[in-house]
Specification:
single chain, Deoxyhypusine Synthase, 3-stranded antiparallel β-sheet, 13 helices, 11 strands
Length: about 325
């Protein structure tokens, strides 16, 4: 890999507990300005949802945001008990391993991708992922972890168990999976084979044909969680399989009681990613009387404000 001179590392940042942020977000609600009002509605709804002890709180998101500094905001949500269950994609495991053990760098959307490829960098939006920080590093770490588990007689794992094992193995306070394990927040990855960690599971299973990933056991756990919950709520970031798996399992209990969506996708192509909450109501995935709010925005630009608002309100209630 040829190092590009002058690159700045991607660093996590964290929520700020500030009455100024509460005043600003409340003002956005009163101002009624386009998506500003929607940001307030999501923040206020999430605050009320998180204040209810009886509510099991789901967080779903695709992996891309874990490559950014917003990983720190996700960690804050877990540490501050705003989340009870995470449903995400395989890349979350990939990026959490890679960023805990190595560095990503700031780039731009306009960089020459052919040149980057020749220099040994992958581009993820405006984030640069060095080849050595991703593929080989994840392979080495995962093969070592899987060999240790196998030597202990563990020949079948769920994605919940795997995520917890990775968190324990990383053992770093900069890791999202570490904090999920520490705080007892299960992490489910229904599309586990679609990523670098998934490829390592396949490769390991090629050498150990009696090794398996038990996705059905994950589904049983989700069934138990949703069926036993008195109330459920979800903050759904983006779309894809993590979004659908969250609302799908809540269908079987009559739907979510609370629903907050943040998305940039359009409903005009009929995709699940762009589907509005009202469409989920028609399927029974969200209750007709559910408290709901939606925001059209790119997650990394708005989630820090929303989480800072909720954490400040939570702190003020406990003071």
């Amino acid at each position: 890999m040829r190092r590009i001179p002058g690159l700045k590392k991607v660093r996590d940042f964290h929520a700020a507990e500030s009455d100024d942020i509460v005043s600003m977000v409340d003002g956005m609600g009163r101002g009624g300005g386009f998506m500003a009002k929607n940001l307030y509605e999501v923040a206020a709804t999430l605050d009320k949802m998180c204040a209810r002890d009886r509510c099991v709180k789901f967080l779903s998101f695709p992996a891309a945001i874990v490559s950014t500094g917003v990983r720190g905001i996700l960690i804050d949500m877990v540490k501050q008990k705003l989340v009870d269950v995470i449903i995400t994609t395989c890349g979350t495991l990939d990026h959490d391993i890679a960023r805990t053990l190595a560095d990503y760098y700031e780039g731009s959307f306009e960089m020459d991708d052919t040149k980057l490829h020749r220099q040994g960098y992958h581009r993820l939006g405006n984030i640069l992922v060095p080849l050595q920080s991703y593929g080989p590093l994840i392979e080495e770490r995962m093969q070592g972890l899987l060999e240790r588990l196998y030597s202990q007689g563990i020949k079948s794992v769920t994605t919940e168990q795997l995520s917890a094992e990775i968190g324990s193995d990383l053992g770093s306070k900069s890791s999202l999976l570490y904090w999920a394990k520490k705080m007892g927040v299960p992490v489910f990855v229904p599309g586990i084979t679609d990523g670098a960690v998934g490829s390592q599971l396949w490769l390991f299973a090629e050498r150990h044909r009696d090794f398996k990933v038990d996705l059905i056991a994950d589904e049983r756990r989700l069934s138990d969680i949703t069926s036993e919950a008195k109330e459920t709520g979800a903050l759904v970031l983006g779309g894809g399989i993590s979004k659908h798996h969250t609302i799908w399992w809540n269908l079987f209990r009559g739907g979510l009681d609370w629903a907050c969506y943040i998305t940039t996708a359009s409903e005009s192509d009929g995709s699940l990613s762009g589907a509005h909450i009202r469409e989920a109501v028609s399927w029974g995935k969200v209750k007709e009387q559910a408290r709901q709010a939606s925001l059209y925005a790119e997650v990394t630009t708005v989630l820090p404000f929303i989480v800072s608002y909720v954490l400040t309100k939570k702190k003020n209630r406990s003071d």
